[in-house]
């Protein structure tokens, strides 16, 4: 029997897709991610031996590794095909190390898209493992481990165990905290804007806004100036047209998406987190079941290059001409220039098959997959379409030292905006000429306040990281996610702000490692990783240049550790009821609490803020208070630890089925509202509103009321 060829990928989903269109001579197997990493229990880096990393098999991966070895044992050829980036190259290297004893022909295959033609071409043109990419990954991993291993214990000593101070995550936290300090320092000042209505000699009306005062483009800045303008600009005041011009501006389409711009756009349009966006994009890349077979819908989604290959561009331009007509196709191939420092190893994110339109396969996608695929598809198609053309009229009308501006903008040719739906139309200007007189018919002054720079959204934070050269396409989502997981930041109304814990970490770490966690220094490190990837610098030298000044700062911090702990320990004017020692504020898993300063001899603790419930404990008749646990709030006896009674919170609206009391159960998936008497339960809270059809209590779903009986969701087509 002929020996088979083995393809090893890191994802079971990708394996399933590729298996669907390759012949029986290939065997697909998945490593399910990394198979080796640095040990969790120790540094795992031999600092004295040129920073040699001590990779070990990840716990639980032995079975997978043995299965891979078994499959490869009698193979004719082995293709290592994890993702085509530093992370994937490291996985390929570790797989090769494990398979070395088998003696089979081990090659590297790079799949930039999971389609039959591309995969077969990659298998026919295999390469070898790129050691520079492996070394770049090694440099980043070793540096991150050194920083985390040595700085995190500082936080454990001063605040609590379990905290981390990652090399890049701390810089992102720094940006967020510095923005918060900027907001706190900001002093708001008033200013005024003016909107006016004018009329021409032919009694044609138009709207204008205040543009300049005394030849300077600005707002009204003082009450005295406001009073002067209110006195001089009365209804009936005659203004003169001092400028009137017509222009023909164009709007150019943006380039196809790269990782950061896709994450930013999904955040702005759908309030989708970067992590979720990348998870959905990964599923589109790895494969979707369509009637004609399983196929990857988009190219590799971790990229910082807007380059597209010539063959794909030719197919795209044919599609645009056929779909919209030649007038909607840009006259020549539009080529976008990568920003400085872009790797350009991968193409931009684009559809793999231009004829697979989002709306034709909508029923085969989840709603979120459809949103992201349509976003990618439309952006890619628009990039080679003709510009949108407009006609813009602008008039400046003046009186004394005051100028008002009026504008009209009308579309002439939709161009790419016929696809994106961004066509703009505003204003209506009558025909005027310089020197004409117009009459002020109405004016309104509105007071406003200057505002500080807004808190970051995920989109603006990713943009800030990208512009400053911090992180890479594969790391943006993880950087932000880590901050949330560590409870250093929270998101409210789409904006990110630091928690009290996050501010505490920032105040401890940043002043003591000002250069290591500087934005410019972190960006410099990213460039040095790129130099390792390009083969122009050794990874050991990069680590050493970082390590030497880092150790100096680290030793200085260690010397003042006890003083720091005392400095950051908050004291309260209260003593321990058990041993009479002072109580201090400490941090625990769920936030701050009061603890005895005599710990560990005395282990007394209590909540800092007691939320009362107006309910009594059924066991000891003491008051029940609201406490915070892993999944949220619950009721507990104020007599803890003598009395350990707890119970669920009660919802303020009764059961829609039987009218009994509803309790709130906190779970990993979120809150569940459950009736005490009957079997009714829901993830959506009952609200004090009746269904107009059946008369039962409604539920609240994403801010809207609905009835689960009368608004049954439509079943998806199979």
Write the layout of secondary structure elements.
Layout: E1 5-9, H1 12-21, E2 26-30, E3 36-37, E4 45-46, E5 52-53, E6 56-57, H2 62-72, E7 77-80, H3 86-99, E8 105-108, H4 116-124, H5 131-158, H6 169-185, E9 190-199, E10 205-213, E11 216-217, H7 223-232, E12 238-247, E13 250-251, H8 259-270, H9 274-286, E14 288-290, E15 293-295, H10 310-324, H11 367-382, E16 388-399, E17 402-413, H12 417-420, E18 437-449, H13 458-467, H14 476-485, E19 489-492, E20 495-498, H15 500-512, H16 519-534, H17 539-559, H18 561-568, E21 570-575, E22 582-588, E23 591-596, E24 605-607, E25 611-616, E26 623-629, E27 632-637, E28 646-647, E29 649-650, E30 662-667, E31 670-675, E32 681-682, E33 686-690, E34 697-701, E35 704-706
Parallel strand pairs: 1-2, 1-7, 7-8
Antiparallel strand pairs: 3-6, 4-5, 9-10, 9-18, 10-11, 10-17, 12-16, 12-18, 13-16, 14-15, 16-17, 19-20, 21-22, 22-23, 23-24, 25-26, 26-27, 27-28, 29-30, 30-31, 31-32, 33-34, 34-35
Helix pairs in contact: 3-5, 5-16, 5-17, 6-15, 8-9, 8-11, 8-13, 9-11, 9-14
